[in-house]
Each structure stands twice: as C-alpha cells, then as structure tokens.
Design goal:
The complex is a heterodimer of chains A (266) and B (251). With 266 residues, chain A is mainly alpha-helical. Chain A contains 12 helices and 5 strands. Chain A has one domain. The radius of gyration of chain A is 19 Å and the shape is globular. Helices cover 28% and strands 10% of the residues of chain B. At the A-B interface, α1, β1, β2, α2 and α3 of A face α2 and α3 of B.
C-alpha cells in the first residue's frame, strides 16, 4: 500500500473539514471550532506556533493561554516531523494539483534539476524571508505574517464563505500564489512559507524521519527525483526541509525486495 | 539598558498610526484588551467569529488597513448579547478568558443624542403644553431592551433615558433604537475619547485641524462627551414664546 494514498486521504479530509467545521458551527455544534491559525477539538486548543510567537514578541508578554495552545502542535512536530505541511496543509494539496495539471496538459517538466547546493540556497531565502517578516512585524506591532499564511487564509476564507456568504480580497493572494505555482515548482513551500520554516525549528532527529536502513542500494536516484523539496532523502532525511511526505519511500524500487528507504524512529 | 535611544526607538515602534484607530459604533468583542494590546495579541484566527451564536462579531476586511481579519461588532447591525462565549476560545488572551460576568464587560459607553432621541423631543414638546409638530412620540425602547435595566440606563423624571457608568457598551439599545434616519443612541468604544489612543484618524485631524480648533464646534473626544452630557433639557424652557392664541389660524 502506498503512503501517498493515505496522505491524499488525509489532505482531502482536511479540505472537507475546513468547510464542514463552519457548517457545524452554524448549526451551533461547537465541539470543533476554529481555522488553521488556531483551532480546538473539544477542550484541546491548538494554534499555529508562528502566530503565537508573533503575538508574544509584539505584545512583549507570555501568558498561559499562549503556551497551552502551542503544546499539541509542537509535540506533534517533535514526534512526527513536519507532517503538517505535506499531510494536512490545503495549500500543499493545491500546489500538488498544479503539478498534476501540468502533467495532464503534457507541458514540459518544470521541476529544477537536483544539485548539491540547491537546499542551501532554499534555506538561505527561507530564513531571510522569515527574519525580515518578523522585523517588519515588530515595527508594525501587529502579527502580519498571519496574513500571508496560505493555509490560514484558505481556511478563514472557507469560514467566511460558509458563515457570511461572501469572499474577501485575501483570496486573490492565494490565487496569485497558485498561478505562480503553475510556473515555478513549489516555490512558496520551498523558498518562502513562514509557517513551514518556523515549524521546522521544532524538528527533532528522534522523531519520524526518512532514513536509508540498508547499507547499499541500487543508486537509481529515483528518490532524489521524486522529492518535492529538492533534497536527497538518502542522506538528508533529518534536514529541516523534509516534510515527511513519503514520496521517496513510494518511489524507491528497492523497497519491494527489502526495506531500504523507510520512515524510522530513533 | 534603558536610555534615550531605546525610548526613542520604542516610541517609534509603538506609535504606528495604522495600528489602531477608533470609530463610533465599532466595538471589539467583550473582554478585549485595550485596543493597542489587542492588535498585538490578536492572531486573526476567527474563532470568536465562528463561536458567536448571534453572528454579531464580524470580520474586518481589507479596507480596514492593518485591522484586517480582526473581530468587530457593529451594534447598528447586530449588537452583542453578552453570551460570554467568545472570550473562552481566544488562544492568546486577547479576549480575557477569565471574564465570565456580563456585568463586568466594558466595551464602550452609550451616548444619547438629545436632539434626536424621541423621548427628549417629547419632553421638549411637553414643556410647550402641546405637541408643536404633531409627531411627538414616547419611546423608551433603550430602557426596555437594556440587559441591565434600571442599572445601565435609568429613566430620569420617568421619561428621559440617562446612561450611567454601569453601561457595558453591548449596543442592544443602538440596534433597537427606532429613531430615523440616524439612531439617537451611539456607542463610543472603550478608550476612544482618550486623545493618546485616537490613532490614524485622530492624528490626521490633528494635523489638518489646527486652525479649526479655535471655533466652538471643534470639541473632540472626552470634551465633546462632557459637553454633551452637560446638556440637560429637564429644566430648560424653550427660548421662544409659543403663540397659543393664533394656533388654529397658523395650522
């Protein structure tokens, strides 16, 4: 059974949930409520760690509600790695849909060639973008990075559609990103997304990571070719870029005979 | 560590004019921190909007500058009914979750416009003995709909509604006020009359309105409120003589 099937099911369930949760709330069922910036199931509150961190530095204070709401995301992050991005984020599903569309339209491949240094360049842009955003945020004194959090915008807009029956202008931001996504392979996730960058700070090597369990393999490089984050899964599973999507595990031909590239816990 | 430069820098960072500005009849949900702190704490997750059973809380859109995505109550459309659900779901404490008593909410204060309030008009007409226009009406809606009747709004002389300091600013009176075309009762959000907090529009009017300030009608904020609250028509006689003898000939 391919990991991709489970992953797709989780993604589609999430997209269903962002429309279904507001519907429940309209009918006054408040068991699950919120958007992807912050949400709670029962009494367990969860919030985007970056959003909470921003309000911490903007307000210059920490209270128990902030700390309580980031516990679950950070524990998940430490245990399972950055699964939020590839398994749940609705924007990632849209970006994958764009690649699928390109394949269906038979346009020529737009994924850049793998090279040793590409992840270094990605990391540089990511951290500079996050840092610049935080500085801008400190000057404005308002958590503005939430306004460019793609999953947050998508789920808030879903809520606005269901509850108030209109769409606000912020949806254009996501539309423009997706349009660019059609021409530049995963550019937002790889180079910019502040939410993903901030989440990757909590990545632990003891959590779930892709590792080569067998010493030697056929070196076909199909895992490298399949990786959407442009890293080498055989050696860099612990890197901050890896979002545990499992595409490389699916692509590995050696896995059929003997476990070679697998998700492991240390 | 604190010196002249850090203070200067702090002032520069904290005095961003787009961060907060106040408008009449536009309130934060109950339990909100002061506007400036609220803008820093609110992460725009929209949970308070989702949980509101009356659809009172609306989401600020792109035209509200940096306020985009934050919750607002427009009491002219739909007032807050003080069900106290929204503050419990706030993940950052921008709405104080410890607040459970509706009486302790202070979103703003209601201000009655005595020139359009039907009861004040009626009282003025009553002083004349008979209705001058034939349209005088008795109302008392604000007194009846107020969740804290006889505490937040009291009837002076059994007819004139007067707002006391127990007003929570929920805005139900504004929503229900029957005066047309403009509601006779408006909510001034908490902190709005303080000059320091006026924000973008306050600053702009300060720059452009220096000369106008000399004139009598340039009263703003707290002074305007004070001046308005001084108006008490209870003992005032109209400054014109009513001609009762020629009444039938005139009308």
């Amino acid at each position: 059974m391919k990991i991709k099937i489970y992953r797709r099911a989780a993604q589609i369930l999430t997209v269903f949930a962002i429309f279904f949760i507001p519907v429940l709330n309209v009918f006054e069922l408040y068991f699950v409520k919120g958007t992807f910036i912050s949400m709670d199931i029962g009494d367990a509150a969860m919030a985007d760690p970056l959003a909470v961190f921003q309000s911490m530095i903007a307000a210059g204070r920490v209270n128990e509600y902030m700390l309580g709401s980031v516990v679950i995301p950070i524990v998940l992050m430490l245990l399972l790695g950055r699964v939020w991005c590839s398994w749940f984020c609705p924007y990632y599903l849209c970006a994958e849909f764009m690649s699928w569309l390109r394949r269906k339209l038979k346009l020529k491949a737009y994924k850049p060639k793998y090279s040793e240094n590409i992840h270094i360049r990605q990391a540089r842009v990511r951290y500079i973008f996050l840092f610049a955003g935080l500085v801008l945020m400190a000057i404005a004194g308002v958590p503005i990075l939430n306004l460019i959090s793609a999953p947050g915008v998508i789920s808030t807009q879903a809520m606005v559609i269901v509850k108030f029956h209109y769409v606000t202008f912020e949806l254009v931001f996501v539309a423009v990103l997706l349009l660019l996504e059609f021409f530049y392979f995963r550019f937002w996730c790889r180079f910019f997304c502040p939410t993903g960058t901030f989440l990757s700070f909590f990545r632990s090597k003891r959590g779930m990571t892709v590792r080569k369990v067998k010493e030697d393999c056929s070196n076909c490089m199909s895992c490298v070719r399949s990786c959407p984050m442009m890293i080498n899964p055989m050696t860099m599973g612990e890197s901050a870029h890896c979002n545990n999507c499992g595409d490389c595990v699916d692509a590995c031909p050696d896995n059929k005979a003997q476990d070679t590239l697998k998700f492991t816990f240390k | 560590m604190r010196n002249r430069f850090t203070e200067l820098f702090e002032g520069l960072l904290n005095s961003n004019p787009f961060k907060n500005y106040y408008k009449k009849n536009r309130l934060r949900p109950p339990g909100a921190a002061s506007e400036e702190t609220f803008m820093e704490l609110c992460i725009r997750c929209a949970r308070c909007i989702e949980v509101c059973p009356y659809d009172s809380i609306e989401r600020a859109d792109l035209f509200e500058k940096l306020q985009i995505g934050t919750p607002y109550i427009y009491p002219e459309n739909k007032a807050c009914y003080l069900c106290m659900r929204c503050m419990k779901v706030c993940p950052t404490g921008a709405l104080n979750p410890k607040l459970t008593d509706g009486k302790k909410v202070r979103m703003g204060i209601a201000v009655i416009n005595q020139n359009t309030c039907l009861n004040f008009l009626y009282y003025k007409d009553e002083m004349l003995g008979v209705s001058a226009t034939g349209t005088a009406q008795l109302c008392g809606t604000c007194y009846n709909v107020c969740p804290y009747t006889d505490e937040a709004i009291v009837m002076e002389k059994f007819i004139l509604p007067v707002v006391t300091d127990k007003c929570t600013g929920c805005g139900i009176c504004t929503e229900k006020c029957p005066a047309t075309p403009e509601k006779a009762i408006a909510i001034y959000p908490e902190g709005m009359p303080v000059d320091k907090n006026t924000g973008y529009f306050g600053r702009r009017s300060k720059v452009h309105g220096r000369e106008r300030k000399k004139s009598a009608d340039a009263l703003k904020g707290e002074k305007l409120l004070e001046e308005k609250q001084k108006i008490d028509s209870s003992d005032v006689k109209p400054d014109f003589e009513y001609n009762t003898e020629n009444y039938d000939e005139q009308y």
